[in-house]
């Protein structure tokens, strides 16, 4: 899949930053051009090296907003770690195309750097 930002509408995630020690159950994206005519949107996440991390499927969809489960596989090595979220619509051929991109920032409080951690554990 090629990310083509020229097709992308302005998009934002809410919350814009997630504490991985207590993540929300879902994240909302706002933008335009979202359509579930041929299937729900997929949101793919990439790290700062452009490595694919995870993909989640939208659960609630309108033309300007969609919600999806907080993606797994995100981690923070200290400070705030950005991940590129790419929102994809499916077309009638079953192919996906980019309709939005946004940055989701993650961080962790305490010593744990990659969940799951137990009280007092660090990794």
Topology summary:
Blueprint (H helix, E strand, L loop, with lengths): L8 E2 L1 E3 L2 E3 L6 E5 L11 E5 L5 E6 L2 E2 L3 E5 L11 E10 L5 E12 L16
Parallel strand pairs: 1-10, 3-10
Antiparallel strand pairs: 2-4, 4-8, 5-6, 5-9, 7-8, 9-10
- Give the SSE order as H and E letters: EEEEEEEEEE
CA-based shape: globular
Compute the number of helices.
0
Number of domains: 1
What portion of the residues fall into strands of 2 or more residues?
Answer: 35-45%
User: In total, how many beta strands?
Assistant: 10
Mean pLDDT over the residues? 84
CATH architecture: Sandwich
CATH homology group: Immunoglobulins
| Portion of residues within helices | under 10%
Radius of gyration, taken over Cα atoms and rounded to an integer in Å? 15 Å
The biggest beta sheet reads: 6 strands, mixed
Terminal CA distance: 33 Å
| Unreliable sequence segments | 119-123
Name the CATH class: Mainly Beta
CATH fold call: Immunoglobulin-like
| Estimated structural class | mainly beta
């Amino acid at each position: 899949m090629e990310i083509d930002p020229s097709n992308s509408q302005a998009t934002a995630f809410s919350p814009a930053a997630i504490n991985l020690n207590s993540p929300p159950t879902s994240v909302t994206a706002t933008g335009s051009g979202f359509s579930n005519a041929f299937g729900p949107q997929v949101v793919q996440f990439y790290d700062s090296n452009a490595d694919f991390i995870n993909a989640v499927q939208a659960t609630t969809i309108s033309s300007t907003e969609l919600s999806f489960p907080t993606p797994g596989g995100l981690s923070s090595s200290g400070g705030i770690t950005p991940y590129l979220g790419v929102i994809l619509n499916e077309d009638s051929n079953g192919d996906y195309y980019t309709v939005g991109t946004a940055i989701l920032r993650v961080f962790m409080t305490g010593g744990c750097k990659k969940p799951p951690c137990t009280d007092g554990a660090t990794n």
